[in-house]
Amino acid sequence: MNNMEYILEKAKQLLAIPSPSGYTAEVAAFVKAELETMGYEPKVTRKNGLVVCLNDDDLSDKESGEGAVLLAAHFDTLGAMVREIKSDGRLMLTRLGGLNANNVECENCTVHTRDGRKYSGTVQLIDASTHVNGKYDETLRTFDTVELVLDELVKNPEDVKQLGIMNGDYVSFEPRTIVTEKGFIKSRFLDDKLCSSVLLGLARFFKDKKDVLNRKVYLSFTSYEEVGHGGAADIPDDVSEMISVDMGCVGKGLTCDETMVSICAKDSGGPYDYQLTSRLIRLAKAHDLQFTVDVYPYYTSDVDVALKAGHNLRHSVIGPGVYASHGYERSHVLGVENTFALLKAHLTE
Q1: Among this protein's residues, is 147 annotated catalytic?
Q2: Which of 165, 176, 292, 321 could make a disulfide contact with 248, Cβ separation 3.0–4.6 Å?
Q3: Catalytic residue selected from 34, 147, 225, 241
């Protein structure tokens, strides 16, 4: 299995594991086992994230003469939580992260109870039949107008509670992952499990090539990114540079598409480190990669959070272009390849 095949296989496996923010123990265990199989010694954090060092040598950054580099991707995703059991046995939800009700209407989902049971259901507009609801078309879809309909014979709150379902139970959504013959990768939650699989691919690639790394390298798989505090903690003391490996934005006013690696110059939190961003641009040009530089209007990353938490770091964000973010997302194998190649160059040259 070549490295791209490995990354795609790991992406499919990661995407199949439910992991809304705060519900990441299972995906953390999967990544930990995968890295241990390679011979690494990953550590699961208190927040059910994960940190691993790729090499033990205290190598310095060739350009700055200081510190280690941390590459961070998040394996938590958007999701929902039960907020109310209605009188008819249906469930009202509260969203986790930037989940949009328009993007989950008619989607299959799973309720995860606190005692480990799982129940399937579907999110529907309240009064979802167009043959009955004359205002179906004009109803704004919000989490006050959609509900979760359980695939169980329930008619009241008592029936639901007998299943062990209660307020605060997690709800995950089917990813619907597809890789087309033309190389398009379609799924929910490519943000950011696609980049998590890129980090696994880097770990696999450098397993027997640690001597080519130009500095000490950590990988971090964070949780709680989608709710804003994923990168606030668990950064090793010797890290002086952090790169969030996260989705590149594709949309109106931007130059990125799904085949590119996107280098972010500025997001809603402000500009990224000038020297580091410029180095990544130089490397992308030198290796003739398909890349672009963009400003993301509505975006924050783990590295934004790390700086706001007080960490003194050079910082940047790169990642494969992803269209329809926070919905049914789409990327391409070329975007993944270009992202991998840029990270490889940055760590070895």
Answers
A1: no
A2: 321
A3: 225
